[in-house]
């Protein structure tokens, strides 16, 4: 799993440095930290709801979405993967 997280982190760093047309990640960086944090909050709520409903596949999918948005937040805030290991 760490390979996937490291790969996502690297892609997020690249998107922050080099804008790509139509990239959702670039859109988040353009909108700034407040938008990224809002998305983190939304995804966290969705994880909780899916878990509460006992929907394992939905919960796993929402966890993936949350992890992605957390990685984008880390890149925006300048937090390295090493700082959270």
Automatic annotation (TrEMBL):
Q: What class of enzyme is it?
A: hydrolase
Mind telling me which InterPro entries this protein's record contains?
HisE, PRib-ATP_PPHydrolase-like
Where's it mainly located?
cytoplasm
GO MF, one term, reads: ATP binding
The pathway this protein participates in, as annotated, is:
Amino-acid biosynthesis; L-histidine biosynthesis; L-histidine from 5-phospho-alpha-D-ribose 1-diphosphate: step 2/9
Coiled coil location: none
- State the reactions this protein catalyses: 1-(5-phospho-beta-D-ribosyl)-ATP + H2O = 1-(5-phospho-beta-D-ribosyl)-5'-AMP + diphosphate + H(+)
CDD domains attached to this UniProt entry: NTP-PPase_HisIE_like
Keywords (A to Z) from UniProt: Amino-acid biosynthesis, ATP-binding, Cytoplasm, Histidine biosynthesis, Hydrolase, Nucleotide-binding
One GO biological process this protein is involved in is: L-histidine biosynthetic process
Q: What is its EC number?
A: 3.6.1.31
Q: What is this protein called?
A: phosphoribosyl-ATP diphosphatase
Q: Which organism does this sequence originate in? A: Candidatus Blautia pullicola
């Amino acid at each position: 799993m760490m390979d996937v997280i490291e790969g996502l982190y690297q892609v997020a760093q690249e998107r922050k440095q080099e804008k790509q047309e139509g990239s959702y990640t670039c859109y988040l960086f353009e909108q700034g930290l407040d938008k990224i944090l809002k998305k983190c909050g939304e995804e966290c709520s969705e994880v909780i709801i899916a878990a509460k409903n006992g929907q394992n596949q939905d919960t796993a999918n929402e966890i993936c979405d949350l992890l992605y948005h957390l990685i984008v937040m880390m890149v925006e805030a300048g937090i390295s993967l090493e700082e959270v290991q």
